[in-house]
Amino acid sequence: MKKIRYIIFFVYTMSFASCNQENFVTVAVEFKNQDEVLVKFWLDDKILRNNTIKQGRLDAVIKVPNNRLFYISFHNPKPDRFIKHVPIYNNPTLRLFTDDQNNSSFTIKANSMKDLYDMDKFLVVTSSKNQIDYSRYQSLLKKDRENNQAKFNALSKKQDNASSAKNDSLYTLYTDSLRFQEQLNKTSHNKVTRGFIANNPNSYVSMYLLSERLDLKNNLALYQLLYNKADRKYRKSWYGLYFAKRAEQLEKLKEKYIKKLEVNAFDVSGLSFNYGKYANSKLIVFDIWATWCVPCMEDMPAALKLAKELEGKSVSYVFLSYDFNDKYWKQQSQKLGQINSYYLSGKTRKFLDEELVVTTIPRYMILNNKGEVLVLDAPSPSSPGLKKLIESML
Predict the structure, then answer these.
(1) What is the DSSP string of 225-236?
(2) Alpha helix segments (H runs only) across the chain
(3) In which region does residue 179 sit, left (phi positive, over 0), alpha (psi from -120 to 50) or beta (all else)?
(4) pTM to 2 decimals?
(5) Domain 2-127: top CATH class
(6) Cα distance between residue 249 and residue 217, in whole Å
(7) Domain boundaries, the chain
(8) 265-393: CATH class
(9) pLDDT digits over 289-342, tens only?
């Protein structure tokens, strides 16, 4: 038995070593209007080397692992500003992603160190395929933030118009929408990240993003599905193995952290929600929405279509409303033709907020017929990811 364990350990360490090969990369930094900046190269928590930008130029050659992120931090010896005579230093850090080619290069071009805080103000010219991939991911995040801010500004303008017109009901509606749009601005990067991984399974960047998921515990099935879509060489990469190790540990502990969601709600006829109604369903999809939530209503046609497609597949699609006006919810729910539609009580909302940290909507969750949460934050029905995830869990 000891021999078998030794062989397994040997194979694992050999796999890990094979994905930790190193190569030399060249890094150049060009600042037009700044000099004497200290530069530190990092890998994880280890400083690889220190350099100084002199006369607006730095050229360095460093040895780093293949297909890994390393960091460059910039330190100006002169304070950026003073607050009450206290010097304030702004020290930006850039992430660069190596590939498996020897002598790959990175050239960072900017007017000064301050430009490194804004993606539009500096340029990274590189031969690293992974860096190009990672820059594309960062651009998607930036575009998402801009889109969310545009929606927030549009809702804010509508709120102002409602206030000027002294329309209290519309003002309240837009106030609620603004509050949740503001929360969405803080969390929608999760949706962008999952979308990138799903659309780019064979990518070392996707393996890195999987390895960093903070919500892995509550969405293990979703991330395992995304991981299994990748080819073997990506799953056996440094980040791929790290993700697999985290997932294996969580799988063993799954029963200890699964939460049961007690739903206190009533339908349009006034009948209380009961899991017994869905005893014949292996899975239950909860669509948490509100009539005033713009993203919810944008996804509603896809949600209604998916709910119909899932009929007869041991899956029930249930709408749970976060509305504050049950009469308006009932009117809109019937108008949309929702089946299995419920209005949530304050007690359940409090549990969702405090215990499951559901701070934004729309939220799509997958549970079993006992009410145990299997996936806390599933993809939206407007993407193919939700249906694929459900089918993989049946």
Answers:
(1) HHHHTS-HHHHT
(2) 2-18, 129-164, 168-187, 189-199, 204-211, 220-228, 232-235, 238-257, 294-309, 326-336, 346-354, 384-393
(3) alpha
(4) 0.79
(5) mainly beta
(6) 10
(7) 2-127, 136-257, 265-393
(8) alpha beta
(9) 998 888 898 899 999 999 999 988 899 999 999 988 888 899 999 999 999 999
